[in-house]
Amino acid sequence: MYHTILVPIDISTPELTQLVVPHVKAQVSLNDTARVHFLTVIPIFPYYASLGLAYSPEAPDNEMIRSEALSQLTEAIKPFNIPKSRMETHLATGSPKDRILGLAESIQADIIIVASHRPSMATYLLGSNAAAIVRYAKCPVLVIR
Ligand code: ADP
C-alpha cells in the first residue's frame, strides 16, 4: 500500500493521462490515507532559449503561462475523481524529468505512476522522461503501457 503517490501529468497529451487514471484510482482505493500529488512541468528547451525564442523566467507573460498550465492541469485531473482533501497539484518549470524526480524526493513519494510514452511514438519502449524516472527514482515506479 502506498501513501504518497506522485502522478506527473503531461498536459499536452491527454491520451497519456487517460491511460493512468484506472491505475491511480486502484491505488487510492487500497489506502484510506493515500494522497495523490499531481505535477505538471512547463518544459524549457535550452536550444530554443539560446535562440531567444523561449520565455525566460523574467518574461512578462510567464504568469499567464503558469496560470494557463495550472488551469489545464486542474481540468486534466478531473477524471481521476480524487477528493480535494486527498490530493495536491504542483506546477514547475524546467526539465520535466529533473523536476519530477526532485518533487518525488521532496514529498518522499512512495510510488510514481507514469505512462510509458506517447502512443504516436510507437517505436519507443519508454519516453525520455519515463526512462529517466525509471532509472533514477528512489521509489517504485509503475509504468503504464
Ligand atoms: P514521450 O517522449 O513519448 O512524450 P515521456 O517520457 O515524455 O514520453 O512521457 C511519459 C510520461 O512522463 C508521461 O505520461 C508523464 O507522466 C510524464 N511527463 C512527460 N512530460 C511531462 C511534463 N511536462 N510534466 C509532467 N509529466 C510529464
TrEMBL record:
Signal peptide: none annotated. Residues 1-145 form the UspA domain. It holds the Pfam family Usp. CDD domains: USP-like. InterPro entries: UspA (IPR006016). PANTHER family: STRESS RESPONSE PROTEIN NHAX (PTHR46268), UNIVERSAL STRESS PROTEIN F (PTHR46268:SF18). Homodimer. Belongs to the universal stress protein A family. This is Universal stress protein UspF.
